[in-house]
Description:
The structure is a homodimer. By secondary structure, the first copy, chain A, is an alpha+beta fold. Among the domains of chain A are: 8-80 and 107-222 and 328-388, 3-Layer(bba) Sandwich (FAD/NAD(P)-binding domain), CATH 3.50.50.60; 474-651, Glutaredoxin (3-Layer(aba) Sandwich). In chain A, strands 1, 2, 8, 9, 10, 11, 17 and 18 form an eight-stranded mixed beta sheet that branches. Chain A has an eight-stranded mixed beta sheet with strand order 6-5-13-14-15-12-16-19, with helices on both faces. In chain A, helix 2 (57-66) packs across helix 3 (69-75). Chains A, B: Residues 443-643 form the Phenol hydroxylase-like C-terminal dimerisation domain. Chains A, B: InterPro entries: FAD-bd, FAD/NAD-bd_sf, Phe_hydrox_C_dim_dom, PHOX_C_sf, RIFMO-like, Thioredoxin-like_sf. Chains A, B: Keywords: FAD, Flavoprotein, Oxidoreductase.
Amino acid sequence: MSVDNHVIESHTDVLIVGAGPSGLTAAYWMARYGIRARVIEKKETKVFNGHADGIRMRTMELFDSMGIQHRVNHEAHSAVAPGFWIPGENGTLIRKGSMIPAQVFQSPFQHMLLDQGRIERIMIDSIREHSDIEVERGVITEALEYDESMDHDPNAYPISVKIRTSSPEKEITIPSNLRLDEWEDIVRQSQKRQAKCETIKAKYIIGCDGAHSWTRRQLYIPFEGENSEHVWGVIDVVPLSNFPDIRRLGTISNITGTILIVPRERNLVRFYVPVHVINDTTTNGRYDRSDITPEKIKARVQAILSPYTFDFKIIDWWTAYQIGQRIAPSFAKGNRAFLAGDAVHTHSPKVGLGMNISMQDGFNIGWKVALVVAGVADPAILSTYNTERYRLAELLLEYDKFWSVYFTDDAKPPEDGGADKNVEMLKIVERYQDFSDGVKAFYGESPLVSKAGIETGPPFATNLVPGERVLPSKLRQHADDSMVWSMRIMKSDGLFRLVVLAGDIRSQEQKKRVDTLGHYLAGLNKSKPSILTRYASIPGGAGSIVDTLTIHSAPWNEAEFFDFPESLRPFDPVMGWGYDKIWCDHACVWDRDVDGKAYERWGVDRVRGAMFILRPDQYIGWVGELEDVDEVTRYLDGFLTQKPVSILSNGHV
Amino acid sequence: MSVDNHVIESHTDVLIVGAGPSGLTAAYWMARYGIRARVIEKKETKVFNGHADGIRMRTMELFDSMGIQHRVNHEAHSAVAPGFWIPGENGTLIRKGSMIPAQVFQSPFQHMLLDQGRIERIMIDSIREHSDIEVERGVITEALEYDESMDHDPNAYPISVKIRTSSPEKEITIPSNLRLDEWEDIVRQSQKRQAKCETIKAKYIIGCDGAHSWTRRQLYIPFEGENSEHVWGVIDVVPLSNFPDIRRLGTISNITGTILIVPRERNLVRFYVPVHVINDTTTNGRYDRSDITPEKIKARVQAILSPYTFDFKIIDWWTAYQIGQRIAPSFAKGNRAFLAGDAVHTHSPKVGLGMNISMQDGFNIGWKVALVVAGVADPAILSTYNTERYRLAELLLEYDKFWSVYFTDDAKPPEDGGADKNVEMLKIVERYQDFSDGVKAFYGESPLVSKAGIETGPPFATNLVPGERVLPSKLRQHADDSMVWSMRIMKSDGLFRLVVLAGDIRSQEQKKRVDTLGHYLAGLNKSKPSILTRYASIPGGAGSIVDTLTIHSAPWNEAEFFDFPESLRPFDPVMGWGYDKIWCDHACVWDRDVDGKAYERWGVDRVRGAMFILRPDQYIGWVGELEDVDEVTRYLDGFLTQKPVSILSNGHV
Lengths: 653, 653
């Protein structure tokens, strides 16, 4: 046994393996909460082109809550209504129509397309803005040990990962025409890196290291499923074609197959192309990648687009893959090791969903681990990661199966006796639309989701459904007329938010109800300690882990900011009154998105209001009426750490 | 006479003195056209807080055409409807109402507020994205010589500026809590700088060096006007106050005076406060700045806001100034030296207009100088800078005078016999609104603006007025359904654009008109050389200085991209068809801003269309019908350099 004197041992609270979309999203939370964390990535540089590109509605909403939506929106290409081309007479193709998803009216954001590399850039910039966490690249993981017997000791480091960092002399391949912000980052990183061996002791590990996840294998978690016999090629090119819809999202089917066209930023268009079917007897079910070339992919596109022309001079990226559907039976091991993204579910990339589901995995596990590390939440909440996300991975694979059949089934015109597969597929698309756009999360009952036995919202707030998102509404800041979408107000800053829909305080009765709630929240009700002071805070954080946000329904000029109880708009001796905590659901003549109909959208009575808890990841955890302070306390008591009695002011418990 | 062996002599085409808003906007054009230019600035660091903050509608539109609007929009605070508070009974203040400007419906952008320093940051980033131009800081100008006799030699360097760069050891004052992007810039700059003396020989100089402009003084251009006797204080603070509209744009008047409240980003609020009237006999009309302190300014705010409270702990910036109104009789000297921004017009800052007018000065002179340097335009166009911008500076001072009276006139309630000065002022505000929001430019007849003797648009395009902007409309890219505001399509990329409103090509007659135009533009009409090939190009530039943009009025699915003549959607052997050149004025169900009413807004017949030339700065230069190819050629011949005959293909002239 050799002794290596050069191995450094270091400690971190959270080790994230892999800096793709899911890893960076998990790291976002570490940055926001100020958690001691490291992000290691085996690749020498970040991704610059190709890979995932679809961004769904809900992902845009989450970006907005993270404060980065404007950058994505500026660079991305939008593609809303997918079209369908089918064989016409005499070998022609005809435009069969296009589909406008119902969800398009539910959100200010639409289906967007942008290079995974740019999404990662924007995420990295956000992480850097909030913390000193930097992605460490060129890091090879060599061994992982996980001692589950230490799980119950919050001070223990049950995870041990041995890593090696490659030397900076190693040549790095960098694409030409790199954007300025990518280039500056590479220079900075290359200045920092040095070859070393290190053993990282961690309290938690989050494996986000892709379909061939090293972490998953080290944890002995199987990856169940199989590869199909279908092999696909993908090319990102600047097309030279006379096909009129070459820059429209859609499918084209003829008797030789179906291709998917995805228009992109920078004049790029992506083509998903069936390349061949593997002859199982000769290849053991695996295809030989070297057999597939951009030229072959091009020839297939030409065959399907015929009689239209197709060629290209610029190819930004290409790959070939064998459709496989795999899912890990569990996304966690013990209470300290978690897996996210492609590490636990892989599928055909054509649905444009993978990056979204992966980021939302990271978004789901990140805040939970961070709150437990910080001592603010009970480790029991960690098990909700698997229950909440597993169902979505299953749906993803389920939906993907329909697409696989659609794309690999040969198309014949209905006139020739073929079923119109587009009509069939549209029904499937509609059935899964809520899931695929991310507007439904299906998060079930758990300590974090109080459903009270029903799957809708309560009668007084029919569209506020525990386990689901809040329907976007643009609101008006009472004190300064800022017009802002609810997602951006409901910031992903790490806090639980008691959203008080205060109703119409022009009604004296309603004002009294709001005042009573304010009295309680201020801690003035001796028999009921306020949820704003009851729980432990993030060490080094700004204050209470539970914050408030009030949205009332009176016209802005018939109620005053100071009419609301002080606990809903607290005073800070330096920063002044909490102006950004009181919002108004009142239409604005110069901003027609501010329609004053948020209460209606949420199914809430404009006079009586309601209240709900929004989890840090912007899903509704609990819904109640303004009097339900015992219920909301019980909900939060279920997983938040209460302050020691001695800390509670006035000694009330 | 001492001989300095260390003086380097260097050459540049354009020397910009001053890196404030006007200098950076002029530099933007140098970056876009690839002109050899330098930007020198005497301050050691850029501005980080305070100074100008108002951004008007038109400035946002120009930012959009420059591709930077999203960043400004993300960081800025909007404040649309200014409110007015006046004395009520018994020493109270009452909210008198607020004003919604009519212009608010004319643009997707509203009145915004953001620190000048952040605007400069965003401009600098844009310049860097397009060029290697870096602002050189800590540069002291020592002497300027301008030999006007060399004006007519395009290869001569009539300007000679001696500069000295201070050493990097000099201590730099940097505010705490600097944003990451500002900090990285400082580090980079400090690594680069070295002390040196240098003589810069330049073909052109643009002096953007502020109210005390060194350049203006070296050019012996007077600065006419005077300081008033009124001294004002300005503070940027995080207010602690129980005044309900402390975060709303507006004025508060009581018998002791009027203050202006301007809400800002980062919880800041700016207060403009009359501090005192100078006793002319003892101070020679100049105030002693040391006499004014933030404490004194605070006391004045407290007096006027009474009975409401006012205090602060955070003060981000403050200054005191004496209201002065000055204008230079000319904004140019000879044909090689120009002045922009505060260097030629100063006024009270309270109108929130100065930065806008200054940036638009830079935006106006920059492209003109660049095109002349590049040999593409006749130097005669340079005289239009003075004629176009002088009128606006005059309007600025005119408008500002009303505000000065408003703010320095004591307010009494009308019940006490005082006129309601708010009612009077609102009339003034309305009268000047088109000017102040920048939605009218008043650019008069010149080689660059062909007005044909009328001040409106022609009968077939009544709202397309030469010398004015294009009313914003959101359009649909024909080939890919991108929904984009017209400002962003009409990019400030340096080209003249022939905007072809192709009308409805479902009409055979109209299609024929469009085809005839396309035939001409393709250079296929031997007797009329196409404006797309007739003129010299920017050396090293991508191609023709005149580009096209087509907006048709048929529904997207009743016309095809390939129905339009090839010259309107040219094919590039690498980049393919010009998909981004054909747009559609057709309403979109999922984007209600795309209302399909652009033609109506522009006063153009939906079937017959029209065409117009957009100058590089997004002002209309010429308007005509689709047949008016001789007229548009005559307009462009008036100032663009024709290619030598030998270069013209087919030998036609």
